[in-house]
Amino acid sequence: MFARDRPRVVAIGRVYATGSMIHTLSLREDLSRVVDEKVEVVDAEVPKPTSEVTFVGQARGTFIAWPTHLLKVISKKHKV
């Protein structure tokens, strides 16, 4: 049995509260719509892979589904 990886920052991005769909797919309530803006670990696997995105490095600048419990809010800037 292998120990699970400790939580780590794999990317810094923006969480979008609006919109319950990504690329014509509905999001479950436990998923958030995010855009990775700065990738820290290029070869980290995304929790919800798609046909186009398997690794965090492939997700930069595009909407992806991310489990809400794996997100950590570091700033709450709002557009005015």
Task: Give the arrangement of secondary structure elements.
Layout: E1 11-16, E2 21-22, E3 25-26, E4 31-39, E5 63-67
Q: Can you offer a commentary on this structure?
A:
The protein has 80 residues and is mostly beta strands. It starts with 10 loop residues before the first strand and ends in a 13-residue tail after the last strand. It contains no helices and five strands. It has a three-stranded antiparallel sheet, with no helix packed on it. It has a two-stranded antiparallel ribbon with strand order 2-3.
Explain briefly what this protein structure is:
The protein has no helices and five strands. The chain has 80 residues and is mostly beta strands. Strand 2 (21-22) and strand 3 form a beta hairpin.
Terminal CA distance reads 50 Å
Helix content: under 10%
Q: How many individual β-strands?
A: 5
Question: Which word captures the global form?
Answer: globular
pLDDT averaged residue by residue: 82
Strand order of the largest sheet: 1-4-5
- How many helices does DSSP assign? 0
SSE series: EEEEE
Helix and strand content put the structural class at: mainly beta
List unreliable stretches of 5+ residues.
none
Which range does the strand content fall in? 25-35%
- Biggest β-sheet strands, sense, barrel: 3 strands, antiparallel
- Integer-rounded radius of gyration: 13 Å
